[in-house]
Amino acid sequence: MKEYLTPMGPTPLHVNPIFEIGPLEPRFSEWLVFEGISVDESGRQHFLDASVAYKRAVLNAIGYLSRFGYSKEQAYLLLSCCPCEGRISGIVDSPNAVATLAIPTAIFDQDIRPKNNKVPVGPRLVRNPNIPQCTYDGNLPTTKNPCAME
């Protein structure tokens, strides 16, 4: 890292890492796509904020997958490691930004596609009171860039 990258912050550890992916790329043909717009959980509109739109797309996917027996924590972990594709899908529809998250359906051992007049039910959820639960109140912490000009 020292040879190829210039530090981007106050210490040599503040770099933008690079990595090489494996030689085989997974190819999927069917995807389930979730959309989010730049309106937060309270209904407040964030003018063309793609970060809010993407967060809404991810939360929509988590909510949907939780209907198949996954806990919300399991769905979050699944999305963090599966070959999903996130995209900024629209920045021109002022005042809303649109983001999408596509999840390949082939990674599941059950059909997660929506069905007419059928609420999905899955067998996977295992409740264990000894596992810490995550909570989310809708507020994301913000960090300040120490290199930014005031």
TrEMBL record:
The scientific name of the source species is Ilex paraguariensis (yerba mate)
Q: Which domain of life is it from?
A: Eukaryota
Per its record, how is this protein called by name? Formamidase
Report the Pfam families cross-referenced here.
Answer: FmdA_AmdA (PF03069)
